[in-house]
Design brief:
Order of helices and strands: HHHHEHEEHEHEHE
Strand content: 5-15%
Length: 251
């Protein structure tokens, strides 16, 4: 074999050229069509792949930054930059803007439930709770003394020292959030009328939650009846004015 190699490659210079041809070419030994040295095709594909991967990482970090930071400091629907809020605005935005919470997390919100009587309402207003929840019923419901006036009472109570009108007059002077829980279908329509009238007189400047229990939950006493869902929604849709833009939460 050595003699055959010498016949094909008579000198040592030719033999070294053959050995170099059999070795893998390095990245820098590929030439462009114009004859100039440049990176190999393999290296260029690696470079493009790296740039594509870096773009994906940047896009992911941008989305994470948006959801983690941007949405906590810029307004959502119902929130205006000048600090005013519609009744249908975001409750967490409202509490965040007033410094009650430091981030949009519902677990940070504190509540005062059944702030119905004047004494309970005053206690809630002076306390640290951020949102007041109160029950709306009709005075003397299903009795000979029924008046049709919305009052703040939880069944089986149908009488109270606090009407919805008086309750709103007091709570609106504070910065507390508002949640009204309708305990009777008969209380929905007159209550919405009061809300609309009150809004036209004095801007609520806060979100208002409207709630109605449409199903009987576990361990609920027999005297607590669910509110008719379809009639409640129909009354809500028939209501006009900004207070009725709020979402009726059927819990």
């Amino acid at each position: 074999s050595r003699s055959k190699s010498r016949l094909l490659l008579p000198d040592s210079r030719a033999e070294s050229v053959l050995i170099e041809m059999l070795q893998p070419a390095s990245d820098q030994e590929f030439l462009y069509k114009d004859g100039k040295d440049g990176p190999s095709i393999r290296r260029r594909w690696k470079l493009l792949g790296g740039l594509f991967f870096a773009s994906l990482v940047a896009a992911y970090l941008g989305l994470v930054g948006y959801f983690a930071v941007y949405r906590d400091f810029f307004p959502d629907r119902g929130f205006k930059v000048d600090g005013s809020f519609s009744p249908g605005g975001d409750l967490l935005d409202y509490l965040l803007q007033h410094g009650m919470i430091d981030r949009k997390d519902g677990l940070l919100v504190t509540w005062y439930h059944a702030a119905n009587s004047k004494s309970q309402m005053e206690k809630a207003l002076k306390g640290s709770a951020m949102v007041l929840e109160a029950d709306v019923n009709i005075e003397g419901l299903n009795t000979l003394n029924e008046t049709g006036t919305p009052i703040m009472a939880h069944p089986p109570d149908v009488y109270s020292d606090n009407t919805l009108q008086e309750w709103l007059d007091a709570v609106i002077r504070s910065k507390k959030g508002i949640k009204l829980d309708f305990k009777s279908i008969h209380a929905v329509n007159p209550s919405l009328d009061i809300l609309v009238k009150k809004y036209n007189e004095v801007s609520f400047n806060r979100p208002v939650w409207l709630n109605a229990d449409i199903l009987i939950g576990p361990n609920v006493p027999g005297f607590v009846q669910p509110v008719n869902a379809s009639r409640t929604v129909n009354k809500q849709l028939q209501c006009w004015g900004p207070p009725c833009d709020t979402l009726l939460k059927l819990l």
